[in-house]
Amino acid sequence: MKTVPRPQPGPALPAEVPLTAEELQLASRNHAMPLEMLGRDRTPAGMHYLVVHFDVPAIDAGSWRLRIGGAVRRPLELTLAELQAREQRTLAVTLECAGNGRSLIHPRPISQPWIHGGIGTAEWTGTPLAPLLAEAGVDPEAMDIVFTGADHGLQGGVEHDYARSLPVAEAMSPDVLLAYAMNGAPLPPQHGFPVRLVVPGWYGMASVKWLTGIEAVTEPFEGFQQIGSYRYKRSEADRGEPVTRMKVRALMVPPGFPDFLTRHRVVEAGPVLLHGRAWSGRAPVQQVQVAVDGAWADAELDAADGEFAWRGWSFHWQATPGEHELMCRAMDALGQVQPLEPEWNYLGMGNNAVQKVAVTVRTPR
């Protein structure tokens, strides 16, 4: 990595400051999943949330190679065809950006200004990573497996290829995939063509796209995306704790229809079926509750959709005319429950506070 010595602005702004031009530029390149897509079991590729840190690399599948090396006994180099000829698995996996909900934190950290839509669930097809690591013969002294993508740029004044690591035990999970297809089609360029990592249960930053290299290392990896970003920090100087698995969360399909500018919802009085999805990267979802004007009641859970995909829920609401606030929250098998308000941290990571939806209920015409 090359360090570029130039001052960087701190990421926290006072709550009343409007979005910056830089944030609007990020928001035009990266996009959220429209919340109405929560009504689908699988998110179409074009609707799935998207983060591209630098530029989308132009990669020729014919000349692309994946190199596995570092602290291994037998370094490997594989073509796309060789990967596709190996054991194949398809997993439905919910991926969420670690910064989802960042714009709802005050003071607001400067970065991609997510509200709630940094989420999506797709079927990822690829080959398990663990057999390749076993074939390469990872050194018993290895601590981390480092995954490097082809996207290159500057962040925090540091020039680098996007790279993240997993502890060896996590990388050896049978469910970690080298994925080359999304929803039954080759990966789109923006989602990591020709091959990306998919790490079920973890926030999306771990699922490195445009994968080119896998390296076993005998010291903890301290690349920028591991140490300088994706940390729960209390201040700029705080080293913080690493962001890892997704926190428990539920989201609701906004009911009725929206106002174009504000997205405020309008619903006809009478019976309304509220529904959405819930997930946790740490334990299965066990309960979802819905609040109407602060009064909580249990929702109905759909059957689990595999081990790593979000779980559907529904709630019958008898809507009465007037102004109402709806909320939803999930609890997982570890007893983790969403907070009512965001828990602030310097980089705006892991905000799983409950979703609040303002609704106007009108008398049917």
Salient structural properties:
single chain; 365 residues; mainly beta; Sulfite Oxidase, Chain A, domain 2; Immunoglobulin-like; 6-stranded mixed β-sheet; 25 strands; 38% strand; globular; disordered N terminus
Structural overview:
- This protein has 365 residues and is mainly beta.
- The protein folds into two domains: 241 residues, Alpha-Beta Complex (Sulfite Oxidase, Chain A, domain 2); 114 residues, Immunoglobulin-like.
- It has a six-stranded mixed β-sheet with strand order 1-9-8-13-3-4. Strands 17-18-25-24-20-21 form a six-stranded mixed β-sheet, with no helix packed on it. Strands 5, 7, 10, 11 and 12 form a five-stranded antiparallel β-sheet that branches.
- It is globular and about 70 Å long.
